[in-house]
Amino acid sequence: MISAQTDAALTHLFETSVREQAQVGNTHCDIAPCVAAATAARNGEHRHLVALSIVSYQFRIVTLFDFATDEATTRYLVGAQQLHQPPAPNEFHDACAELANMICGSVNRRLGSNFRHSGLSTPHHIEHNCINYLDILKPARVKRFDVTVAKAANFSVFAALMPAAGITFELSVPPAAAVTEGSGELELF
Question: pTM score, two decimals?
Answer without folding.
Answer: 0.84
